[in-house]
Amino acid sequence: MSKSLIFDMDGILFQTDRILELSLEDAFNILRSYWSLKKHPFEGAFLKE
User: What is the largest CA-CA distance in the chain?
Assistant: First the structure.
């Protein structure tokens, strides 16, 4: 059985720009909320004490 994977990096097969726009908006809103709190967004995310 052969397996394949298709990468649609330029949006020809799927309209990924709409999904990307919503995702980026959500990400920037989260980062803006951290900025307003003067808290680093990744503080404690990688290092657990």
Answer: 54
d(Cα 20, Cα 26) in Å, to the nearest integer? 10
The length of the chain in residues reads 49
User: Backbone phi, then psi, for 40, in 5-degree steps?
Assistant: -70, 130
Tens digit of each residue's pLDDT (9 = 90 or more) over 7-44 = 877 777 878 778 888 999 999 988 888 776 666 666 66
Phi, psi angles (nearest 5°) of residue 8: -110, 75
Half-sphere CA count of 33, side-chain side, radius 13 A:
6
pTM for the whole structure: 0.47
Record the tokens describing residue 43, joined without a space: 């503080």
